[in-house]
Amino acid sequence: MTETGEPGLRERKKRETRELISDRATELFILRGFEETTVAEIAAAALVAKKTVTNYFPRKEDLALDMHEEFTQGLARTVARRRTGESALAALRGEFLAAVSRHDPVIGFSGEPFARMVAGSPTLTARLRDLHEQREEALARTLADETGVPAGDITPRAAAAQLAGVHRVLFRELMDLTLQGRSDESAAEAVAGSAERAFALLAPSLGEYAVRI
C-alpha cells in the first residue's frame, strides 16, 4: 500500500492479473463446461503461464467460485460487526436483504449461463456444499466468541446451523429462479419475500440470541 492507502503498482498488477485469469476461465467454463476446460487452456487464453494460474488459484474450482473467501466469512463478519442492541439474527437478516437489493453475486446472483454451468458440474456442486459447511463453521466460531460460552457448548453450533441453513436454502432458491430464466429484478423480489418468511421462522428461538450489549 502507498502512504495514501491506495494499492501500489505491484498490488494493482497482481489484482489485474487475477481478475484477467478469472474472467478468461469463466468465459471458457460457460462455453465448454467446467469439467471439460483445462487449466492449460485457461492459461493460454489469459496469456500467462500455467504455473501463474495455479499460483493465484490453487484449486480449479476457485477459478469458477472465486468469491469463496467472501462467501465463507461473510456471515461471521456480519455478526461480528452488528450494532449495539442488535441480535445475530437481525444483523444477518438486514445484510441479506441489502445484498438482495444490490444483486450481490455472493448470495447467488450470477446470471443464467453461469448458474447453468455450476449446476451442470458435479465438481462445482460438491465444492459449493463444502463452502456452505465452511461458512457455517466460521459463523459458529464467531457466535461462540461473541457470546463467551465455554468450549464445547452446543448453542453457537446449533444457532449457526439454523442461521446458515436459511442462507443455504435462499441461495438454492435464487439459483433455481435464475435457472428458470428469471431476471435479477424478478428473482430479487421473489427471494426477498422468501427471506422475510424464512428469517421470521427463526425469530421465536433466535430473536434475542447474541444481542450485542
Molecular structure report:
By secondary structure, the chain is mainly α. It has 2 domains: 9-64, Arc Repressor Mutant, subunit A; 68-206, Tetracycline Repressor, domain 2 (Orthogonal Bundle). Helix content is 72%, strand content 0%. It contains 10 helices and no strands. It has helices at residues 9-32, 39-46, 50-56, 60-64, 68-80, 88-101, 112-119, 122-147, 155-179, 184-206. α1 (9-32) packs across α2 and α5 (68-80) packs parallel to α8. The mean pLDDT is 94. This is TetR family transcriptional regulator.
List keywords for this structure.
mainly alpha; 213 residues; 72% helix; Tetracycline Repressor, domain 2; 10 helices; Arc Repressor Mutant, subunit A
Briefly summarize what is shown.
The chain has 213 residues and is mainly α.
How does the overall form come out from the CA principal axes? globular
Number of structurally distinct domains: 2
The chain-level mean pLDDT equals 94
**Helix count, per DSSP?**
10
Low-confidence stretches: none
The beta-strand count equals 0
Please identify the top-level CATH class of the largest domain: Mainly Alpha
Major sheet attributes: none
What share of residues is helical? over 70%
Rg over CA atoms: 19 Å
The CATH topology assignment of the largest domain is Tetracycline Repressor, domain 2
The share of residues in extended strands comes to: under 5%
How far from one another are the termini? 35 Å
State the order of secondary-structure elements, H for helix, E for strand.
HHHHHHHHHH
* CATH architecture designation of the largest domain: Orthogonal Bundle
Query: What structural class should be given to the helix and strand makeup?
Result: mainly alpha
